Amino acid sequence: MRGSPKRRVDLELRAFDLVLAAFFLLLVSPLLLLIGAALLVTGGLPLFYRGERVGRDGRIFEMLKFRTLRSGAEDRLGPYLGHELAERTRAETTPLGRRLRATQLDELPQLWNILRGEMSLVGPRPIRPRFFEQLASELPAYWQRLVVRPGLTGFAQVRRGYETSMAEKLAHDLEWIADRSVPLYLRTLFATAIRIVLQSVRGLFRHRD
After folding, report:
1. CA–centroid distance for 73 within its chain
2. Helices (H), strands (E): how many in the chain?
3. Which of 3, 66, 78, 201 has the maximum number of C-beta atoms within 10 A of its C-beta?
4. Do the Cβ atoms of 110 and 49 come closer than 8 Å?
């Protein structure tokens, strides 16, 4: 696919990505080491999940996450999408993985993807190549997601739940693409931080019950 035309705001957002991702990566580096040690003790190697995702202009890259699923789970979950994928993923998640997902700490390694220029802090969530092709055939506007880098967070994640329909998520993603700006970027990050704190508190209390 030919390179998408860049707007000035994309250069500004990239500068914010570099500064903030580097800052956050340094800030949480002790936590990354602690999580890595806990994963090694409880489940051994590998520590990271590396999954192929579709990036800007259709480029394929490896998205990083801390491993939260049982061995072989990716193969078992491969055919599923949406609500059924969410349900089956819960059954495959390890005890430590459930805590990492509840606090969204499993997503922290994607700061490296952001520094590498494969992702942004804000944008449509990255999707597997096979599912992208399927959704692009069902939702013709889905190709427009390739105009920007996929994000660690995005409109769809802040405004709606994980199990929202793909058409609804696409509408939010396209709104971000059309209206993207530095103020909107910063507001989305702030809303994400609030959402993570609330989810983390609920998740930790739920696991205590």
Report:
1. 18
2. 9, 4
3. 66
4. no
- Tell me: the pLDDT tens digits for 122-159? 999 999 998 899 899 999 899 999 999 999 999 888 87
Query: What would the DSSP string read from start to end of 59-91?
Result: -EEEEEEE--B-TTHHHHHTT--HHHHHHHHHH
Residue-wise pLDDT tens digits, 154-183 = 988 887 655 568 888 899 999 999 999 999
Q: Are 158 and 169 in contact (CB under 8 A)?
A: no
Cα 45 to Cα 36: distance, rounded to the nearest angstrom = 10
Residue in 165, 157, 137 with CA at minimum distance from that of residue 81: 165
Q: 46 preceded by cis ω (within 30°)?
A: yes
| CB neighbours of residue 85 within 10 Å | 16
Positive/negative CA dihedral, 3, 149, 80, 77: positive
Strand partners, 153: 122
How do strand 60-66 and strand 48-54 relate by DSSP bridges?
A: antiparallel
Place of tokens 């929202």: 164
Those residues with Cβ within 8 angstroms of residue 154's Cβ, 6 or more apart along the chain or in another chain? 122, 123, 124, 125, 172, 173, 176, 188
153 three-class SS: strand
